Amino acid sequence: MSRTENGRSGYSRVAIALHWTIALLILGNVAGALIADSADRATAGAIMAVHKSIGITVLVLSLVRLAWRLAHGFPPLPAHTPRWEAVAARANHIAFYVLMIGVPLAGWIMVSGGDRPLTWFGLFDIPKLPVSAGTAKAANGAHEVLAFTTAGLVVLHVAGALKHHLVDRDEVLSRMLPLARRRS
Ligand code: HEM
Ligand code: HEM
User: Fold this and answer.
1) How far is it, in rounded angstroms, from Cα 112 to Cα 138?
2) Burial status of residue 13 (CB atoms within 10 A of its CB: 0-12, 13-18, 19 or more)
3) Does the beta carbon of 93 sit less than 6 angstroms from any atom of ligand 2?
């Protein structure tokens, strides 16, 4: 597998577009769920309908992102990166892939135990998964724990990216930015 996406030292436009689309949708979904928690019933229902549709979108996009990464590889970290930091970044990325797929999957399993229809932005029905009431209940707990774990990892991830940019002054952040000039 090539470790330098398309032979370059940066991420491809597809990888960058997927990274930022998925990141914004996940952060929007966490914010939406927290707002819904303290909103009135009707508003919460409307927010959560969008939440579920966005979540299913994240699930599909994350599978595409994973397939892209497995097919195209990823650029190596700069040579000066300490080993502990490379290992931490790798672990964080693997954890993100597990969560980007696991959180919406747990949400889908959770709502499959309920009576409400599941639609994608009201445009078409999403099938319910054949799960027992016990599995749906367990998925509810997993959904919450995994979603907040994701939020915690985002804090570490952003801290790492900013450290590269402000302390190490390398290209790790700019190679993931859509409009930054590539150095390679
Ligand atoms: C990007 C993916 C997702 C993220 C980051 C996310 C995040 C969250 C968070 C933070 C909560 C609040 C937990 C709490 O305060 O109890 C929540 C609740 C909820 N989510 Fe998601 N979610 C995602 C995808 C989904 C999907 C795909 C579905 C269903 C198809 C879903 C259905 C729900 C429901 C029904 C609740 C309310 C649970 C309750 O009140 O017991 N979520 N989600
Ligand atoms: C929910 C939010 C986010 C998720 C799930 C996420 C996930 C990921 C993942 C899985 C990677 C590994 C590369 C890949 O396969 O795409 C990555 C790389 C990266 N992310 Fe994020 N990210 C999020 C938010 C952010 C934010 C807010 C920043 C801004 C500071 C950021 C900056 C970066 C950078 C600079 C890289 C490249 C690191 C490298 O080249 O090794 N990410 N992100």
Assistant:
1) 12
2) exposed
3) yes
For every residue of 70-89, DSSP letters joined together read: HHH--PPPPTT--HHHHHHH
Spacing, Cα 126 to ligand 1 middle (Å): 16
> Which residue is closest in CA terms to ligand 1's atom 10?
30
Full-model pTM:
0.93
- Per the structure block, which two tokens stand in for 78? 């700069």
Helix residue spans in the chain (DSSP H):
13-37, 41-72, 83-112, 133-163
Report the amino acid identity of residue 134: G
CA distance linking residue 14 with residue 43, whole number of Å? 35
Residues in CB range of 125: below 8 A, 6 or more apart: 117, 118, 119
Task: List per-block mean pLDDT (blocks of 10 residues) for the chain, which spans 184 residues.
Answer: 54 95 98 97 97 98 97 90 93 97 98 94 97 97 98 96 93 88 47
